[in-house]
Each structure stands twice: as C-alpha cells, then as structure tokens.
What does this fold into?
Amino acid sequence: MKTKIALLILFISGNLFAQEQKMSDAEIATFKQDVNVVSKKIKTLSTDFVQYKHLDFLSKDIETSGKMIFKEPGLLQWQYKKPYNYSIVFKNGKILINDEGKKSAVDIGNSKIFGRINKLIVGSVSGNMFDDAAFAISYFKSKGQNIAKFIPKDATLKKYIKQIELTFDKEEATVVQVKLLESSEDYTRIVLKNKVINAKIDDSVFNN
It folds into this structure.
C-alpha cells in the first residue's frame, strides 16, 4: 500500500512538474527568435476571444466574449459583444471607449495600467515585448506552449497588477492566452481563438 501511495505521489508530482518547466537560456533564445520571425510577417490580426474574470468571492467566473483587432504599427481594439456591447481602442496615444454608444477618451499616459497592458499586447504581435525594462521577465514551457511571465518593477503598477502571463502556441509562436493576476487573488484570463492574419482591415475600424 505504501509503495502504491509513493508511486501515486511521484506520478502527481511528475505531472505537475511536466505542466510547466523553466526554459534554458538556449530555449529562451529560440523562443524569442521564433516570435520575432513570425511577428515580422504580421501586418494585421483579428481574433475572437473569451474573457474569464475570476473573483475570489464568486463561485463561478464572469464570462464575456468578443473580438480583438490589431493593425500595425500600434492600432488595437478590444470589442466586447456578449453579454454587452463595449469597445476599447488604443490609438495615437489615447484610449477610446464606446460603452453602448456612450463615448469617452483618455490619454494613455494618464492610465499606466492600460498603457502597459496595451504595450505588451501590441508587443506580443510585433515582437517588441521582451526588451521592456519595466518588467522582470521569466520564461516557461509546457506541452505545446511557451509562457512568458512579466512582473512589474514599478511600485504603482504593482498595486494593481501582480503579474501578466502571455501564453504562446509553440508551433505558431503567437499568443493564445493573456492572464492578468491582480494584487489580490483575483485574475482575468483571456483566451484567443480563430485567428485571421493579414486580412485587409480599414483604419475606420479603430474610430470607435
């Protein structure tokens, strides 16, 4: 019986360890190179997403869904479609918000959190995220995926965001999941799917 329990513990430990391992320096260099090669080919990207908001006091995550659209060099839109219509556009140093027809604008410089998240998302497509001195970055691998974890160095940002995780498909070298861990136990997980790369996207899409 003890042998069986010991084997079970080893099996569970082995599985947990296999789920996420630290990359070696060589693997990190290969990963960065793969992302950069793919990103140089991406001029536009649109993808469906499902967002899960985990709040510690709720038994079930809050689920929303919509579409994310990117156009180089830095146009980005998050368009929520279910259960409500709400869109956020990052454009020309501003955050343009359309809350079911009610529009507003905020300078990115006045919103450090949004600005940093936007920079990482755009960077994940453009390949320019790994040189961001504002974060301590660590790299991990799991089956079929690579994970980059960004821990803010800025004390103000740390109050709101404990860590940002970008998960990449190992074969495609593109982001498939974004996870924002807050200073509490709450987090937001965004799963990207049905990507369309380099389709024609008009600038008017980002007028919001």
